[in-house]
Amino acid sequence: MSVMSSPVEFLELLAREAAPVEFEGPLVAARAAGLPAERLAELEQAKLVALRVRALLERRRRRETELSGLYDTASDLAGLRDLDDVLRAIVHRARILLGTDVAYMTLNDDERGDTYMRVTDGSISARFQRLRLEMGDGLGGLVAQTGTPYVTSNYQEDERFRHTGEIDGGVGEEGLVAILGVPLRLGSSVIGVLYAANRSARPFAREEVSLLVSLAAHAAVAIDTARLLAETRSALEELSAANSTIRAHSSSVERAAAAHDRMTALVVRGGGMEDVAAAVTEVLGGALLALDAEGRRLARVGEIEEPDRADIVEAVAASRTEGRSVRRGPLWYAAVVAGAENLGALVLRPDGELVDADQRILERAALVTALLLLFRRTVAEAEGRVRGELLDDLIARPLRDTDALRSRARRLGVDLDAPHVLVAVGDDAIAATGSARQRVLSWATTYASTRGGLAAARDGRVVLMLPGQDAGGAARAVARDLSRVTGRPVTAGASGPSTGPASLAVTFAEAERCLTALGALGRAGQGASTAELGFVGLLLGAVGDSGDRDVDRFLTATVGPVVDYDARRGTALVKTLEAYFGVGGSLARAAELLHVHVNTVTQRLERVGQLLGADWQRPERALEVQLALRLHRLRTPPG
């Protein structure tokens, strides 16, 4: 490698997706070439950054693969009708998605009261493939009995499970070490267990557990659909005398399958909540309301009144407990859940009675809704992180490549060469628990992105970059709206407008000084800009935490007697002083401005002299008095 080793070489390694060990190459070459220590330190830092970028890209690539796999799984299962084909497809997809040595499935035998091996993928042991597990025996029997996912990195040494000779022998002959098992749920019942296993010790990450749970949810629905279709075919063959009843049942089953296929296709196409609601009402008729976990409306199709909040909470709790949709009066409720997390509810007002298959359609719609909400959350979180990282880079010093920053901003729909204002939100907005801080940042991210701007957390504060030229208006709007969200007064200082990435760091510093000045002026819970505070704001912005006390002492010592005199007697000495200084010391012009006689102005100024001392008009005293008057005016914001 050339002695001209530089950080660019790490970009080339990233571009060709080199292995981690190859990132040591530029450093080895640089040391061999005898480059100075500072160049070696620079290359070491560049290597570490490049490896972090590689790890981030790898995680995102893996997440994309998992989501794509879920989509593909939903699409594949929707096209299968034979139960054996469904089971084989599920197990094979589980092994591929989690990248394990073996995947298998056991189904519960209600007659014998145990669970037995039904399908395997990657297995080589005949003994293992014939295993039957009593409820509570081994990892699989415990999952089947409790309906709870279990994971072990070394099964043979894990004492949480009831070991038996038959089970341990089969697992040992297969050579399995690490095992993850999740229940196949159908409503409130567990119909089997889906496993992913390795022949070496391996910890399963929480994301992998969640992925297998999602796949198991798809699998249970697909198994149920396949079973229903098989039962329908059998009934048509065996019960020809009950042809009309069979036909009606078949119709409902086909309707359920068609609805499932359609909703799966919606997920694949990236459809929204309105599309899911429309699909359900087209199949079942009536009207449907989709709500989030806070009871806010996500979508509505048809005429349906929103139930009382208490009724919604009770019905959703019952639906979650039973694992099925529940009826309350004329309405049907289906909880929208992901694992133990409540995401919302679907409320259906059907035109007629719902049969069991119709209820399944509503429940499948709730499952699809949960997937859409989770996907939407993942996308929003990813976009929020990208936007926050961009803003953090824009206000950092020294500023990096401005052309690259412009390119990143354009991909997010932000024009850095357009006028923007920077708004710094005070610590009072996030001086709470971690969840409250995250809620504030989430609100700021949404607030900024909907307006074509950016938001980020920086040095314990939240900063927003918003398009426009009215910095003061933006600060007041942020303070007002965020105060409603947090339920506590929020202070916001702003500066700008700023054009171009190079000026944003300076504008951010000015916004922070404005925020400090507002605190010194006693205007916590309000919003203002540096332009509105003027030179006084610039002075106070550098004062620090003691600014409020310093301002109080200065005002009391300089114009305190005049302010107190006005407060006690209802006079206008402060107003007269402001007018007098504002017209350059002209008595006649001050009288005209105040709409009073010149003698009145003279008498008022004589009273000021008695209160402040005869030397109050000397240049150095006059400057202090004017500054104090300005501070006094800023302490009472306009409007």
TrEMBL record:
GAF domain sequence ranges: 82-233
Top-level lineage group: Bacteria
Entry-linked SMART domains: GAF
Family the entry assigns: Belongs to the CdaR family.
Protein name in UniProt: Helix-turn-helix domain-containing protein
The species this protein was found in: Micromonospora fulviviridis
